[in-house]
Design goal:
The structure holds 2 protein chains of 2 kinds. Chain A has 12 helices and 10 strands. By secondary structure, chain A is an alpha+beta fold. Chain B is α/β, with parallel strands linked by helices. Classes of the chains: A alpha+beta, B alpha/beta.
Amino acid sequence: MDFTFPKEYQLLRRMIREFVQNEIAPIAGKIDQEEEIPRELIDKMAKLGFLGVYFPQEYGGMGAGEMGYCILMEEMDRVCGSTATFLGTHIGIGAMAIYVDGNEEQKQKYLTPLARGEKIAAFGLTEPGAGSDAASIKTRAKRDGDDYILNGTKQFISNADIADIFSVLAVTDPSLGARGGMTAFIVEKDFPGFSIGKMEDKMGIRGDGTAELVFEDCRVPRENVIGEVGLGFVTFMKTLDINRFSLGAACLGAAQAALDASVKWAKVRHLFGKPIAHRQSIQFMIADMAIEIEALRSLIYRTAWLVNTGQPYLREGSICKVYASEVLHRCVDRAVQIHGGMGYMRDYFVERMYRDARITELFEGTSEIQRYVIASDIFRQVGVRISP
Amino acid sequence: MRIIVPIKQILDPSGITVNRRAERIFINREEYIINPNDKNALEEALKLKGEQGAEVVAVTMGPERADDALREALAMGADAAFLLTDKAFEKADIAVATTVLGKAIQKIGDYDLIIAGCRATDTGAGQLGPRLAEYLGLPQITEVRELSAVGDGKVRARCKQNQGYAKVESSLPALLTIAQDANQPRYPTGAGIINAYREWEVTVWGVSDLGLEAEDLKPLMEEKRISFPAEREFGIKITGAPQEAVKELVQYLKAGRVI
């Protein structure tokens, strides 16, 4: 067994870490406060290949696969939850849906500019009445000659305000349900009948815009159907399956940053005449963080290896997502506790981390739905079919 | 135009702790990087490549692990890379390193510019550039801040000299050493990193490839002991009566061109 990263990934991590430290760390607080990721930053990341890290070079990507994607998310979330969310949305779901089931023409036309970072992607699944229960979406797509006409509203869509290309799931045949009756479409922001609705005012990841997508008789050409008509739900679920463990990697980075900040603080903050590092209450919190982070690191990169080597990873992907987000939750909570009152102040990194972390237990499948996925996979292997 | 950039792989200083009392350097994390100043040299070469087209060749002498420094140079945009490695180089001093690199550069041949860093962070000697220029019989411009033009068989540069700057012109081929803060080296691109390890090649040359004799590999220096330099007191202390002290301070400030 060998736990060393291949050399290209070691250098990739160092490059990303340097970039993040030099280019993002100084402005991460501003990104949160001004609720915007500067376009120049996106362009710089695009130039280095970040926006196409996962995809093959023939489609304008970096060609670094799952492992590279995990490293990017981990390093990014050490410093800026908003930028990590932006990248995860763009790469892991928006563009990923086209990569997973798109045809060659769609990959050339849409995936390539997305991977190069010339265009930004978003992913339209969630609706006011359908989050974890994704099979109950209502957005309708009716056939009209060579086109489809979309009507409905998508909710809580990350990157919505800056995206150019949207992967969107709609119902094409209500009688057939999720498997058979739903179709995935590529929608361009300028398609008539498509608009961005209300912007959300969020607790954290405030730098990445979240908004509604509104479809009012939005005409989408038939060639923009991703995969086969009726099989869009499968495309979307496959996409989410791939992305799950990379979200875990992002949480790993943020948890590590919470630990690093806490260690630094414990060294300099004096209480009763000594740095608080000498207090057992602090030591135990630091140790508990380190224990969970190390366990998480092994889990994440073992899962990346499963994906890389073509083995099944459905259960592990969900385990990554739920465990990572909950480890992060506990780590940022401890970090704020260790920082005391300072940890509650906007000037401090851990205050932002605390707010940014909470979403990870909610988006892309809540912890509850992940537990259902894990349990259903376990029971399936013993011949029991369960429902959520 | 062909530009050769000699680079050196060094231990990442952020992974070491210096304990002055024990006179020891502790390695907490053994990681190697391209000497930062050599990255300035590489950046200058790559800028020229971008502006007027050039073939940038990175070359290093070192153990096998120095391959990583060359892969990084390729990922930054270098077109070719040469690793000079051999058991016989293990005890090389700066004179031997000059001969090995000099022979390799002659073998690569057909160069217009050699762009090097001013000094390596590990030894701080700052000898390689000037020695290499002497070995190859080339004109040299040291501590270059800005390369203003290359063309018509000439290179023009602004370089640090004493308290100020000088504009210098030289015929080609020439050797330049680039000052530490001359530029901000670019990041290697992601695809460059992947390709550097999966697609691109590093040429490896040893003693026989370079036609080196036993005499060439004999170090002139012998290391007896490594010790820490005496602790320095920073700054200048002015003592004495206030009136005299002020006069002395003004003199220092004038000499330093502060006032």
